[in-house]
Specification:
Length: 1501
């Protein structure tokens, strides 16, 4: 057992610790204690007793030594086995024979006999602090079983470390590999003796590990997996802990009494979900009412075997207070029992139970909470309260009529328990009387011997204290000042005696055995100061103090642990608790060392307090009833008629473990009406709700997307009108409420990585914000007015929501300074002066990494930008480049556009670590006279897609897409003549949620366009990340059943007849996408069937859908419609685009059939946008538009469409995670390449969960994104390869070296750590996403050894003469059969022309708000679409376009506001692709003048 008085020295450690003198014995006076002291040079730390023994271990961290005493601290000996190598010493928490010495490297030691002997074992790898800050996880019922969590930092882990776990079942005589790739480590299921006792055998070997997810190495994808066979049969099973589904974002697994708690966090929130189980089989989410549990803002406190206690932060973290919650017996529902608990910034809470007595605990609260809650550094007035009934009521501590307040956990000077020990009913503490708690130095020592009911002052001044001999002796020593006196009491603190230590020390701790049963203590303290300081461990032994051992008459045989206000024994958990306790006045000692005090219980009559709500019931608001939370199950054969009744649960159950007898029985079953078994009937209809706003248009709106760990079910939107009125809805637009009515809000800035946080910029220096989805609003002041450089003024850290960057304008000059805050705007410091912009760079190992663009000499007049970096808020900076245009971040890549020395061109450099940059090598068969405009697009597939403009002439823009290798340096050509528009957007889009599927529009008449003709566009699709492209296959029939005349064969494209769709460059809503990441395989598009793309408003335009990722398409409606996906694709809604309409159409079967719903029966409306939550997981949609024609109302409107009452979408689907193939409602869908067999895509067969079309249910809980499982890896084929650098693709699909150039130097791979061989170039390289194995490995033909490994290579690959002869003959015989691989033909039109500087829109991750509704992608898994546009003169705002000019001007100056009859505008974040996804794929071009974009400075180049 861990020592309950842990060493807590605050003095700095000296260089060495050594035993300088043999222990000396000083005999005190006859009736005093015996003193033994040992001198050390420095302080011994981490001291602990083996439970029920006099054996102590301690640790010297300076010299790396461990020490042992076998006589309760009188003498000490060095543990020589680990001499000089001991990094830490740990006791086994559940076994008093075992302890572990953690070595500084890979050697460690274990003892199984309390340190008499030690066994060395080698871990093979460095340790990793995983489980409770330790590398160990201990099995609570079998002490031989231990899990060791280590980390492998050997070459091959990209400069980082990989966590792995081992286990032993024989005290490390053997260590067995458990699993690898577990960044969260592994733990036993049985972490406490009480856990799962009813299933002891079943879960004895059960292990849980937190491993990386299938999609990424980031924490948001961490999964919990369990195994009963140490993962010998696979990677384990993910427990269905969230309403029958597994969860991602698992942070930790903890054990509390008989509970196991799993904490998980969604990607774009800091809100946590806590999932609780007491058997690993049934899991529940812990519900805290309306309170949110956030990361690092909750503390699981000391709990009981029938309830958990959790304190939740309820104020600013800089001045913390909390709310104390207590759970029911299974940890599901938590009730708030006391408010404004005192916390500190480390999460410690002033809360402690009185040891071994149920129902009594002390808590400190903040009396002046109203003053503290809104203040930055308000001084707390802390008071102490106590409960004797498990938190139902609290009362003050009093002494002689005055309130008493005690120092508790947040100011702990005492290690372990603060107030009590197993000594029955004895409680001590340091504090003061009065209105509030004063400083420690002003406190006195107080004692209670009736478990806190009455108190007396024991000693004046603050003291360290300890309990001994089951409370028969109390010991105290002054705290702070040097003293040679120790004081003790033999009568429960009524009178005190002094003993001389024979040495003045500044005491740092006093301790004894964990159960406080012996008469010996150890005091630690320092003597002297500076270089003369010495540290002493002093044993104080009271064994000879009394001659008589206590007899029967010296004990209270039945001392009540709890009494009521009348002094009668009280009941908790159905029983009264009694102790056999020595009387205070007895002149004797208890001769029972290591024997815990005797406890007896007497049952009580059952009362309401002995019952809690049954499963699937919860307390009513007045807490008097238990109400069902879902439809009640009904026994078979009853409820045949609506008026029938059945015998069912009363809603109550006796708390498990409760010992009450007789009395009331609230758990007795009751007659219930059968109506209780029937859920709310579905109306079977879609409903709608119109809301009118007195405004010319909508300026902005943002969805506050809920993550899987978010509590509640709100669907919150914040909206700003063109009149600067701001509204909030919690129910997806059914009802709207104005917010911040008295403030002039000119811009809304959501935090792109924390969806609950939104900032509101005003026309003053005041900024408002909410971090809880609009429940509360707060504010701060910025140091300077916002910059006027047309860039976003507020930036956010990707991991820490309170870390902000502000771009402020100097008052006296047109210069931007960047400021930073780490406390959400409470305090600001200058970061960089004379800058253009700064941004946080997301790297796991450097959370303070910031890149800044600063003008040379901090002067914007120089017009020369330097790129700087710093990982310590610019206390030290590094110059990376001295003349750049801009930089961007895209997933793992950092991309920098530099000007060449002559200023005529740009070139691109790339980094993946933020430190080392390499030049981007463009394809040799690709040449542009001046590389002066790029669009940086998607990099979610570990490769950068870059569009390089070839023709920049207005209205005639097009270019070439090139694609990088995995580090962004070597590029190959993907496709020529890809369409681009004037602002820089490109007709390129990845299919969200599915690997490597992309669509583009190419210019088919390049030569004509170069001569000034109009573009003719064709649409193409790739299923292998751009390596192969094909025309879109057209359907034979249109939506009305008519034939498309040019189609000869259904779904067969020809050069003159294919499907062409309108893409990115024609979208008003740049965030709208063809597909949705939660509707995998489904896409919709507007276009036509023919030889080229026609006008969008033409007669040939139809709306199309595909449900197999673009392999086949069908027409669903004539004309152009906007679309939105709901309930993860089980509901699809379309509405006429920019045409008067009164209805929408919806499909429940992936577009096979459509129904019409009239939402405006009396007047036409023109709809500008249709939106839903960014995850497309809602059954609600929102239309944004205005009424038109006869009877219209002026203003703009939203229309909520609610599909939740449809009978077909009223039941929640059931997913069987363990057997998904046989699920009633789901099937496993396999995407495929249209030209490959066996459903292989990127070298593997993947399966995704998809709802069956005919399943009459709704998805509800979000299905996992990405594949459910990788069934197998495929053998390699041509589709898994693309052309290598310096090679070009020929018409037959083969790769040929560009004439005049050399193959790439593959020998450079030998520079990587651990590389031993390299492969000669073949012209092919594997697509980064492909996982294929064997087969046609086109990149591995001739293998060569790396320098220094020639001999090893020869031994491995050497062949005999016979073998060489045989291979030669076979090779010659087969030569005649070798041919070319023949694939689809591609147009290779040139059209390279010079161009002038345009603009660089290098977008970072989609934290950039860009003039249209958008959702984030890349790091957010929701959507991935092109991100950045590069050109050279003016940078466009990458976040809110409202910041294009000073915030001190009218909002109409920030973004285009529509006029005429429509009066709407293209505002940011207006759809599912909007707020929660907040990583706009492009920077917004709304504020860039055309001449700037076109490069009017061409003449200067």
């Amino acid at each position: 057992m861990i020592l309950k008085r842990l060493l807590g020295s605050t003095t700095s450690l000296l260089a060495a610790l050594s035993l300088l003198a043999v222990p000396s014995l000083v005999l005190a006076k006859k009736d005093g204690p015996e003193i033994s002291k040992t001198k050390f040079d420095t302080e011994l730390q981490d001291i602990f007793y083996f439970d029920d023994s006099n054996i102590i271990l301690g640790h010297d961290p300076d010299l790396g030594n461990a020490w042992r005493s076998d006589d309760a601290g009188a003498t000490w000996s060095l543990i020589k086995d680990a001499e000089g190598e001991a990094l830490a010493v740990y006791p086994h928490p559940w076994n008093n024979q075992r302890a572990y010495i953690l070595g500084t490297d890979r050697d460690h030691w274990v003892t199984t006999n309390q340190g008499k002997s030690w066994s060395r074992w080698n871990s093979g790898h460095q340790f990793a602090m995983i489980a409770n800050g330790r590398p160990f996880s201990f099995h609570a019922r079998d002490p031989k079983k231990v899990i060791w969590n280590g980390q492998d930092c050997s070459p091959g882990f990209l400069g980082g470390c990989s966590t792995l776990s081992y286990y032993t079942d024989d005290d490390f005589a053997h260590a067995n590999t458990l699993t690898k790739g577990v960044p969260g480590g592994c733990v036993w299921a049985v972490q406490t003796p009480m856990f799962g006792e009813a299933f002891a055998e079943e879960i004895d070997n059960r292990v849980y590990c937190i491993r990386s997810g299938p999609k990424s190495i980031f924490g948001s994808d961490y999964r919990l997996t369990g195994s009963d066979d140490f993962f010998k049969s696979g990677e384990g099973v993910e427990p269905a802990i969230n309403t029958g589904r597994a969860v991602s974002g698992v942070l930790s697994v903890a054990a509390v009494k008989n509970y196991m708690v799993v904490a998980a966090k969604g990607e774009n929130t800091d809100e946590l979900a806590l999932f609780v189980t007491d058997d690993t089989i049934t899991w529940h989410r812990a519900e805290f009412g309306q309170h949110r549990i956030t990361e690092e803002a909750y503390t699981i406190l000391e709990s009981t075997n029938y309830s958990m206690q959790v304190d939740v932060l309820g104020s600013r973290s800089i001045n913390p207070m909390g709310y104390l919650f207590s759970s029911n017996s299974n940890g599901t529902y938590f009730t708030r029992i006391i408010d404004y608990t005192n916390r500190n910034i480390w999460g410690n809470v002033d809360f402690e139970k009185v040891a071994d007595i149920q129902g009594i605990y002390l808590v400190n609260t903040v009396k002046n909470w109203e003053d503290v809650k809104g203040a930055l550094n308000g001084e707390k007035q802390v008071v102490t309260q106590i409960t004797f009934d498990d938190g139902r009521t609290f009362q003050d501590l009093t002494i002689d009529g005055d309130r008493l307040h005690l120092h508790s956990v947040t100011e702990a000077r005492i290690g372990g328990r603060i107030f009590s020990s197993p000594a029955p009913g004895i409680v001590m503490g340091v504090g003061n009387t009065g209105k509030q708690l004063k400083s420690w130095e002003e406190g006195d020592l107080y004692v209670s011997d009736d478990a806190g009911i009455t108190w007396r002052r024991a000693l004046k001044g603050p003291h360290l204290y300890e309990f001994g001999n089951s409370g028969a002796i109390l010991v105290a020593i002054e705290s702070g000042d040097s003293t040679s006196v120790i004081q003790y009491s033999l009568d429960h603190g009524r009178t005190w005696h002094k003993a001389d230590l024979d040495k003045k020390i500044r005491a740092s701790f006093i301790t004894t055995v964990p159960d406080s049963t012996t008469l010996s203590f150890v005091v630690g303290g320092a003597h002297g100061s500076g270089f003369d300081e010495e540290f002493y461990l002093i044993k104080v032994d009271f064994a000879g103090l009394h001659e008589r051992t206590c007899g029967k008459g010296d004990f209270e045989e039945k001392w009540p642990a709890r009494v009521d206000e009348k002094g009668n024994p009280s009941c908790i958990m159905g029983h009264k608790q009694f102790y056999r306790r020595r009387k205070a006045e007895a002149d004797c000692v208890i001769d029972d060392d290591f024997k815990d005090p005797e406890i007896t219980f007497e049952p009580c009559e059952c009362t309401k307090a002995d019952f809690e709500c049954d499963f699937n019931f919860e307390r009513s608001e007045d807490r008097q009833e238990c109400k069902p939370v879902e439809v009640l199950p009904v026994p078979e054969g009853v409820c045949k008629n609506p008026g029938d009744t059945f015998l069912g649960s009363s809603g109550w159950r006796k708390i498990p473990g409760n010992a009450c007898k007789g009395g009331i029985d609230m758990a007795k079953e009751v007659e219930r009406p059968c109506a209780d078994t029937i859920g709310k009937p579905a109306t079977g209809e879609v409903s709608s709700e119109k809301t009118l706003f007195n405004a010319a248009g909508f300026s902005q709106w943002f969805y506050l997307e809920r993550e899987s760990t978010s509590h509640g079910n709100d669907e919150t939107i914040i909206m700003l009108t063109t009149e600067q009125d701001i509204y909030l809805t919690k129910d997806h637009g059914k009802t709207w409420a104005p917010i911040l009515q008295d403030e002039s809000i000119v811009a809304i800035m959501p935090n792109p990585k924390f969806h609950d946080a939104v900032y509101f910029l005003t026309d003053s220096s005041k900024v408002f914000y909410t971090v809880d989805r609009g429940e509360r609003f707060d504010s701060f002041k910025v140091p300077k007015p916002p910059s006027n450089n047309k860039l976003p003024v507020l930036k956010f850290h990707p991991d820490y929501k309170d870390w902000l960057l502000w771009s402020g304008l100097e008052n006296t000059q047109d210069r931007t300074n960047i400021y930073y805050s780490t406390d959400r705007g409470d305090n600001w410091k200058t970061l960089v002066r004379g800058a253009r912009k700064c941004d946080y760079i997301h790297r796991a190992d450097k959370d303070q990494l910031i890149f800044c663009e600063r003008y040379q000499k901090e002067d914007p007049e120089t017009d020369v930008l330097e790129l700087l970096s710093s990982d310590n808020f610019f206390a030290k900076e590094e110059l990376i480049y001295n003349n750049i245009l801009d930089f961007a971040t895209m997933n793992e890549f950092i991309i920098v556009a530099q000007k060449t020395e002559d200023g005529r061109d740009l070139h691109v450099d790339t980094s993946v670590d933020g430190q080392t940059f390499a030049a981007a090598n463009f394809p040799r068969n690709f040449a542009v006279k001046h590389q002066q405009a790029y669009t940086v697009m998607d990099s979610s597939t570990h490769a950068v897609f870059l569009h390089v403009t070839v023709n920049p002439s207005q209205g005639q823009e097009y270019g070439t897409i090139i694609k990088s290798n995995s580090n962004g340096t070597n590029y190959v050509k993907v496709m020529d003549n890809v369409n681009r528009d004037t602002p820089g957007y490109v007709d390129f889009e990845k299919m969200p949620g599915l690997e490597g599927v992309a669509m583009i529009n190419v210019v088919a008449n390049v030569e004509g366009v170069n001569d000034g003709n109009k573009k003719n566009l064709k649409s193409m699709i790739s299923h292998n990340d751009g390596s192969d492209w094909s025309l879109l296959p057209p359907p034979r029939k249109d939506a009305n059943g008519g034939d498309y005349k040019c189609v000869k064969e259904d779904q067969k494209a020809t050069a003159d007849c294919s499907l062409h769709v309108h893409s990115y460059t024609e979208r008003r809503d740049k965030s709208a996408t063809f597909g949705s990441p939660t509707s995998v395989g489904i896409m919709m598009a507007v276009g036509n069937v023919g030889s080229q793309l026609d006008r969008k408003d033409g007669e040939t335009t139809d709306t199309f859908i595909t449900s197999d990722a673009g392999i086949t398409w069908k027409s669903v409606r004539k004309g152009s419609f906007m679309w939105e996906y709901g309930d993860q694709g089980s509901i699809i809604v379309i509405v006429a685009e920019e045409r008067a309409t009164r209805s929408v159409f919806y499909s429940l079967d992936e577009g096979d059939s459509w129904e019409e719903y009239v939402f405006s029966p009396d007047v036409d409306m023109e709809i500008s946008y249709i939106t839903t939550v960014p995850s497309d997981n809602s059954r609600n949609f929102l239309l944004w538009g205005r009424e038109v024609g006869s009877g219209n109302k002026p203003g703009v409107m939203t229309v909520n469409l609610d599909f939740s009452e449809l009978e077909e979408r009223h039941r929640q689907c059931v997913l069987d995670e363990e057997d998904p193939a046989n699920s009633k409602d789901y099937y496993l869908w396999e995407p495929r390449h249209p030209f490959q067999n066996e459903n292989c895509l990127f070298g593997h067969v993947a399966q995704y969960h998809r709802k069956k079309k005919d399943a009459q249910c709704y998805n509800g809980v979000r299905l996992e994104e990405g594949p459910h499982v990788i069934v197998r890896n495929c053998t390699c084929s041509r589709q898994d390869y693309e052309c290598d650098y310096n090679y070009q693709r020929l018409g037959d699909g083969t790769c040929e070296l560009v004439p005049g150039y050399e193959p790439p130097d593959h020998k450079q791979v030998c520079e990587n750590k651990g590389a031993r061989v390299w492969w000669e170039p073949t012209g092919y390289r594997k697509i980064p996403l492909s996982t294929c194995e064997g087969g046609q490995e086109l990149d591995k033909i001739v293998e060569q050894p790396c320098p220094g490994f020639e001999d090893e290579f020869a031994k491995k690959h050497g062949l005999s003469g016979i073998a060489i002869f045989f291979i030669l003959i076979v090779s010659l015989a087969g030569a005649g059969g070798i041919g070319y691989w023949v694939w689809d033909q591609y147009n290779k039109r040139g059209g390279l022309s010079g161009m002038g500087f345009g603009q660089i829109h290098l977008g970072e991750s989609l934290s950039n708000v860009a003039g249209g509704p958008g959702r984030s992608s890349g790091e957010s898994p929701l959507v991935t679409i092109p991100v950045a546009i590069i050109a050279a003169v003016v940078a466009v705002a990458k976040t809110l376009p409202l910041l294009a000019t000073s915030l001190f001007r009218s909002a109409k100056g920030y973004m285009p506001v529509g006029g005429g009859s429509r009066g709407t505008s293209t505002g940011p974040y207006r759809s599912r692709d909007a707020f929660a996804n907040r990583r706009q794929d492009y920077s917004d071009p709304a504020f860039v003048e055309d001449d700037e974009l076109l490069g009017d400075d061409d003449e200067e180049v």
